[in-house]
Amino acid sequence: VRGLGALVYLAPAGLLAWEGWRGRGEPKEYQEEPGTERGERRGMGRFFTLVCLLVGLGVSLGGYVLVWYLPHRAELTRVNHYYLFDQLMPHSVSAILNNWKTGIFGDHRGMMPYLFRHDPVQTCLVLVWMVARLHRKRAKARMMQEDTEVYSVRQQTEQSNVDFLAIWLIILWVLMCSIGYAPSRYYVLFLPALSGLAGRTLSDVLFSLQWFKTHPKETSLVTGLFGYHLFLSLLHHAGLKGTLLPALAGFGYAALSLRLLPRLSWPSRTDQRILPAAILLLWAAGNLYWTSDWLLHMTYRQREADRWLAQNLPANSVLIGAVTPGLCLNNRFVCVNVIAKLCNDDHPVERYAPAPRYVVILDDRWREAWWQRNYPLLLRPENRVHRFEGVLRPFFVIGVYKADTEKVAHR
């Protein structure tokens, strides 16, 4: 996550470079401090900020290279190669298209389904702002042609801040929909930008409402996507196969938007004050729901699995598998993490003989393919010592298998 966070630097760097280039030839009245004798132009100040940003980034990267990368470059090169080329980077055009489909229209995983289920209010506000942004930019361009009054530095700074949040969000959204591995913890990277743009929409909510009314076709894209994910959320745990019904719901929402939005009336003065407060209350209710759901359904299955292993396996046992670090937090077993092409994938069972060894893996329909391919005899039912249900998620099963190298050979 820290490595991907470095991409956020592209947002301020690109914005400052554009502002500096655009302001390089502005006349004297566009200077940041009107009345200065030398008439310093705004573009030069922007380039100075960009230089400071790049110097700070260079110093940080230099310290990282000297203190950490060079002493550990062999290990870091191997690990980074795995994460970049085996885990993150898609290897075909079809894989990229599938990642985008999952990111926008997925169910059990994907960026948009996660955001619509866990933070629908902020997500909708940001989508509304992004779609309305193009129209507003065209309107501002027309206004500047008709009005020669120069924008103040405060207005310029405010617009730059909003653009920074938008570029930050777009960079990471595109990345999350493109890479092959994007767990929900990665989304923390763009939550600050999401909240900032949602607040910006709330501060000008009347403009958004008016834009709704005058642009029903563009608005129907947002409402259709919301309807799709709303319906999909209701059927999330119902074993739904395919996306036909949610797609029909999305089209229904879009059709209602085209029909009803042009008939909306302009809000009164009272509505102008109440509407932002109502949206904030709706956002707070959503967060309260998820926090309450977490607290009411909190279990201790991981702790109980840890205790079961400590009580039922020999004291000098070696537990082997990718899930073992999470199950050996409080016991004293040796745990060996095994991830193909990354760590301990060279005869992991044989290397720890003659100690008692147990392979602990995701089992049943989620059985890990590497173990099935390399140790098929080990995973026979008669070798399974125990199974844990619901430790990771309700539908995951963890199997514990006794590893006997006299009977099981690595392929």
Topology:
Blueprint: H1 2-5, H2 10-22, H3 42-69, H4 73-88, H5 93-105, H6 111-118, H7 120-146, H8 153-178, H9 191-203, H10 205-214, H11 216-234, H12 244-260, H13 269-296, H14 301-312, E1 318-320, H15 324-327, E2 334-336, H16 348-351, E3 357-362, H17 369-374, E4 384-389, E5 397-403
Parallel strand pairs: 1-2, 1-3
Antiparallel strand pairs: 3-5, 4-5
Helix pairs in contact: 2-3, 2-8, 6-7, 6-11, 7-9, 7-11, 8-9, 11-12
Walk me through what this model shows.
The protein is α/β, with parallel strands linked by helices and 411 residues long. The chain has helices at 2-5, 10-22, 42-69, 73-88, 93-105, 111-118, 120-146, 153-178, 191-203, 205-214, 216-234, 244-260, 269-296, 301-312, 324-327, 348-351, 369-374; strands at residues 318-320, 334-336, 357-362, 384-389, 397-403. Strand 1, helix 15 (324-327) and strand 2 (334-336) form a beta-alpha-beta unit. Helix 2 packs across helix 8 (153-178), helix 7 packs across helix 9 (191-203) and helix 7 (120-146) packs antiparallel against helix 11 (216-234).
